[in-house]
Amino acid sequence: MERLLLRALQRLSELGKRSRMRRKQIEIVAVVQAAGIAWILCAVFRSSGWFFDQDGYVFALLLTVLGAVCLLGMMVMRRKGGGMAGQSGMMVMRRKGDGMTERSGIMLSASAWLCLGLSLFYAIGLLTKPVTVQGNLDEALRWGAYASFLLLLNRQLAVRQAEETVFSEKTSADGIRPLGLPLPVISYGLQLFCLYAVGSSLAIWFGWINGPDYMLRTTDIRLSASGARLAGYLQYSNSLGAFAVALLTWQWLLLVRSHSQLLRLSGAILAVPCLTVLILTESRGAGLVLLAAVVPGLLLVPRGSRLRWVGVVLWTCPGAIAAVGLAWMFERGGDYIIGMDERMTAVLLLLLVFGSSAVLLLKQVSLERAAPESIERWSEFAAMCVLAYASTLSMLSAGGRGRFNPLEDSALATGMSRLSMYKDGWNAFQESWLLGHGAKAWEMLRGLFQSNPYAASEVHSGYLDMLLTGGVIGFLLLAGLGVTLLYAAAAGSRLYALPVATLLLHAAVDVDMSYGLYWLLLFAFAAAAAELGQVEAAGVVTAPSGERGRGWLRRHLLTR
């Protein structure tokens, strides 16, 4: 009897050691995968967002090779019995009773096939004598690379679901389910990219990073209300603003719905810089898209979390306004504050407002926060409204509101110029409505259809540009891609599709789709939303008592 008991204890000890080793391996692999996703996004962002074709050949080759290796690995695993999924007796992404995971996997797979379809469409378009052969070749290469990146993300989700299936059937040495495995890798990668994107953009504003067209300085109120606009590595303020909106809504989403304390903490830290970058770009279209995202977000959030959503949104404003004030004061050539005494006073006040916003955002992410009484809750909500209103009013009075007033002549002139361009683009589309004119159609043909003087080399609408280059067939493929990505992101909750929707909405009025980074971010947001849905469907796993003394970072990484 004693021998049997001793053998059982030894067996349990061995199982515990194996479980801990497996857990460490999963952690290391997850960190490497998150760093890899972040590196791809950061490298593309640093290279002008892959706007110019010559800047993206290396990325296209890298993504294509990785996608081919991933596809080959999937085929080998299927022949060997399905790998991890086969060991658990289930197909990857086909877990019984998990309709959300199945839908997101199907939609992401359909998105990858639509990208391949667009790549093949541009390749076949070479037979129809496009306006530029090199343009069609570049577009075919781009869409093939996009499909490979989407395939990698979808594979990551499939592996994560298979691991969740296996780990849910096992227990550790103390009889507790393995802790929070696997990790939300894509979400971590997006947070690392967000840190780099907003950090480098703010560094450019303060003059710590210099480069061509990273800043736009002008005295023309039609272009800038403050005299300076942030363009960043993308070298275009409006697209940087659009990406900042998507990243900001992602931070709000994490603050309201994520079960990971580390993701919520990072969301609280990054929300204010994201809004700061958005304001410094002075992008009117991005600002309207943000407003359009706040209201649907309030409606899509569960009723019990609606006040929390409003609180997170409003408490982001004071800190961002304070940061914008600091940025305007220290912008080279600016003369908002002249005297040193006034400068120091303003800095102290702005730091105070920024600090209060940061503290209250951190208060929002505390999982251990007790529910306040009704009076305290509504008084806190009133304070949010007053401070947010005062901060916004001070920013408008300091930076000038003419550019943001739709009734001003400058705003009307810009709008009329866009409408004239869209009209000319529509006329060009009607000349070849089925298959389009081929890649770079507007750049090559705008002189033939231009009715008014403007110098835009892009048509400033991603959907109209697709009608010009790919006709109705290309547009249908693009529309199908957008729909499948929205469905994949909204599989767990409609709120999860908010970042994807903001990118798709702003692309209707600007050149965002010309950036390779736009598509990589769009796919990453859709996959990360599906990943959050997986975590929420699996439930929250908290650290057992034995893990609570092993370091704050380890506990928060392991907790979903």
Automatic annotation (TrEMBL):
UniProt-recorded name of the protein: O-antigen ligase-related domain-containing protein
Bilayer disposition of the protein: Multi-pass membrane protein
Localization of this protein: Membrane
A GO cellular-component term linked to this record: membrane
KW Manganese (keyword) present: no
Transmembrane segment boundaries: 28-51, 57-77, 105-128, 179-208, 233-255, 262-280, 309-330, 342-361, 466-488, 517-541
Keyword annotations of the record: Membrane, Transmembrane, Transmembrane helix
O-antigen ligase-related domain segment(s): 270-478
UniProt cross-references to Pfam families, sorted A to Z: Wzy_C
